[in-house]
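--- STAGE predict ---
source: upstream dedup step, 1 unique chain passed
mode: sequence only
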Amino acid sequence: LMSLNLKNVLLFPDPAFVLLPEECSLPILFKNGNVIGINLSNYVVGGDNLNTEFGLEVRKLIDYIISNTDLNILLIPHVLWKGQDDRLISHEIISMYKNDRIAVLESERYNYEQIRYVISKCHLFIGARTHAIISAYATCTPAIALGYSVKAKGIAKDLLLDENLIIDSRNFRRKQLLESFVYTLAHVEDIKLHLELTIPSYVKKMKNLKKEVFEILNK
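--- STAGE serialize ---
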């Protein structure tokens, strides 16, 4: 095997961290109290409805929020491509619950910067798509990542986040998502403070990218 020269390998945050939120009008749900933002994908849930193993965990979570809190739920589709359209499962949930405390963001009317702004106004966020979770982290919004990829787990590790804040949707135990939500809800202020102390220096690394690349090229 050829040996690798790791001196020429640089590690930087995802460029999406530097995207600034763009202020926009918020769904009426925000006027009625604190909002839990939830982004789901067919990759994480295992289909476009909640009739899957992980889908049942999502149902337990929604049932708990509706029955035991006064929080509202905003489903936030983040990817709208054919075959990966987050709107499908979001509207399936709306049809299933028919509850005025649950709504879907009309994401096709917003650009990514505006969706980031909406996420930043959530009391806490639960996200399947990596870039949706990055929007929460970048705006210091307490978040639970429903990630199964190395990338999702790696970002949480880079930010020194508690293991309760990431759920592997391919390898989970029953009620783990609900327990993670209860933990996050109880520690919202601590998590927010941790992100506020961590994110600025983390994002600053991205701003040094050009400088460090040129230093390697000039050696």
